[in-house]
Amino acid sequence: MKWTSENIPRAMREHFFGSAENCYMRMKNERLASITKKSIISFFLVCNLFCISYVSVHDKKVPPKQNSGYLFGIFEIAGEYNNNNIGLIYMNLANNNEYVFKLQEGHGGVYAIEVPPGEYQLVPSVFYDFEMSFARRSPINKLLSNHPELEQKIRVEPGVAVYLGHFYGTQARYGQIMELTLDSYTFDFETDRNRFVIHYPPFNGIKMNPAYKIQGKTK
What we know:
This protein is α+β, with helices and mostly antiparallel strands. The protein is 25% helix and 37% strand. It contains five helices and ten strands, in the order αααββββββαβββαβ. It has helices at 8-17, 20-33, 37-50, 141-146, 189-199; strands spanning 69-79, 84-92, 98-102, 110-115, 118-130, 134-139, 154-156, 160-174, 177-186, 207-210. The strands form two sheets. Strands 1, 4, 8, 9 and 10 form a five-stranded mixed β-sheet that branches. Strands 2, 3, 5, 6 and 7 form a five-stranded antiparallel β-sheet that branches.
């Protein structure tokens, strides 16, 4: 760089310290290095308990993509107090990415999400969040005990929608105590597939597979 009276300050800065971008990254790295290992571990522990990112529901008017996979089902919640949520979690076994399905009221619980093709499995815990101010991750031992098929790995192929089942949660308040539960599950591929297509007309005609190797309904 040729130094002139117009660029001496910038030239000197870049000569001795590097570009503005490099200076910023250096300061950022030094700042990150000053964070203790204990602080980092604490952050991830807190985030594991309180950070919830629900999946984006696929637009009902948008046709499915041939190179994408889809997970669909009925994710329903009911009860007298509706400011709380249950998040059902499926994990991509190749990269450990988690997809949190938010249980919703009524017809809102009939939906699909777009996912990369691959192998998935239900995580043996769910998120309970209370009025979006407190959340905890809890095991679903009772659900898995009653429905061991949910522990099976499932395969999602490109251009295929995979039916997960009908998950049903409830919420209720008993005085100052709020209770959220997820312990009801049914698996009726034919009935729920027809219900799904009513809400997602563009999916009518694409290949749909049941996720689990069971027959008829389970209660």
